[in-house]
Amino acid sequence: MIARLRGIVWESWPNRLILDCGGVGYEVNVPQISVDQLNPVEGKEISLLIYQHIRESAHTLYGFATKEEKDIFLLLVDRVSGIGPSTAMAILSGMPVRQFKDAVVNDDSKTLSTIKGLGKKTAERIILELKDKVGIAETWKPADGQGSAPESTNAQEAELALLALGFKQADARKFITVALKENATASVEDLIRAALRGR
Length: 199
Fold this sequence. Notes:
Helicase, Ruva Protein, domain 3; globular
């Protein structure tokens, strides 16, 4: 599976790029939020996190500027019934990740429904199935309220990744907490590996 690509932008269209990686051109679908961050003009080198969607008729690549964008994409595709890659990309193109998370946590289906192609029923289903997952960042904040410590940031990212892999939130948090007690400076990758070993 392709997990990351770094290369030169060969061709650029709205929400779609051809990336030249060592002479091979990869066509990658990219949400508007990533396009805004990367400004992928032709000739520029960029790096993308990749999700490879495999079907009998096609292998499609989806690219993201940040891990947070990819994690939300995976939660939408894996956890919300009726949401496929195309709809998930439309959601990420329709509003910033922070605004999307706030809308889900606050039961704000009206705001979600402003995304083009997203009806009220689908917005309500997204809230129902993701509400306990996109609020993770808030629950990992340190008690002093002085912002996220490095280990809490790593815990947030690791927990999102584990949820995308099919872990229950309670289990993911238990494994991460144990791993952090053993090594308070564990990286995201270390935390994920520890959880996979303990599963």
